[in-house]
What we know:
The chain has 224 residues and is mainly alpha-helical. It is built from 10 helices and 3 strands; from the N terminus they run H-H-H-H-H-H-H-H-H-E-E-E-H. The chain has a 3-stranded antiparallel β-sheet, with helices on one face. Helix 4 packs across helix 9 and helix 8 (110-128) packs across helix 9 (130-164). It is elongated and about 75 Å long.
Amino acid sequence: MELEDKIGYHFQNQELLSVALTHSSYANERKSQHIQYNERLEFLGDAVLSIVVSDYIFTHCPELPEGELTKLRAALVCEKSLFEFAKQIQLGSYLRLSKGERNNGGAERPSIVSDAFEALIAAIYIDGGIEPASKHILNFVIPAIKNSQKKRMKDYKTTLQEIIQKNPGEKLEYVLVSESGPDHNKHFVFEVHLNSNVIGKGGGRSKKEAEQQAAREALELMGY
């Protein structure tokens, strides 16, 4: 199936894929056929998605405190994000919907398509285990995290600079405090100084990331 080529996973049990792509409206339209639809798979897929995303960001975002991890996970597993992920593989076009649901734009409806994305995760998990399910999820999540980090990096330093510039004569400076770890896994710690006073401190896997975390702390301490 074309969808299998897109996601890079081929099902041993094709029935699982079929159920994952079947909306309740399609099954209700054919009640006499007792067709299975994807709501139970969606339930399981939601749990698999949450543990895979939680494990990844816990391991790869060591600079984020628990509150920030929770916010990041919520942003990655929300309906809006799942709908965007699903659009990358045109998932809506593969769904089995009733004629009425399809005519009413069901194939482009975020709630329906994002639910099917979770059902697809569960189908892969049942068919092949956690490894292919995790690989499938991270194909979408890792680029999304990188985009999120870029936006955060732009925001924190830019925002802090704009605030400080409102007071002429104030000087911002980022100072490297420590550098540790092997070349493939460096950890940097920076302080941000305002007129030689420390107003924030942060760490990260790159100097830029550490500076951004320092700026983030400074903004929090300043009440932003």
